[in-house]
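Researcher: Next sequence.
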Amino acid sequence: MTMALACGAPRTNAPAATAASSPAPPPPRAVAQEDNATTVTDPFAIGARCPNEGTVGCTLDKASLVTCTSGVMVQTSPCRGPAACTVHDFTPRCDTTLAEPNDRCGNDGVAACTPDGKALLQCHDHAMVKTLSCASCVVDGTNISCQ
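Model: Next structure:
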């Protein structure tokens, strides 16, 4: 499955800006009005409206990977690992090396440790399931072991 990340306006063949032209406007942001105060809201927040089906991104708190589904941002996966949710080369990445039982997941067989290091989990039918109890579950890069 291919997913796209929307990152602002489409590229145009307009001439480059000159010193006499005005600076480029800042990227668009979702804005909400609350009690006469303007606050910036997270366009990638779980439950936020989204116009582009399949758009993928990280929530502002970097805790979740989200995907635009039926016009609403839904959590694809919590990103509990130390790298959280980050974007590299316009591609969001979610660190799922740490997870809780029943966390959403995408690929069956993918393993994770619980945050307390007491269990090894595996993705089964899009949910993390406890596979083994451990004295110490260890994440070493992409290797996960239960000791």
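Model: The first strand starts at residue 30 and ends at 34. The chain has two domains: 32-95, 97-147.
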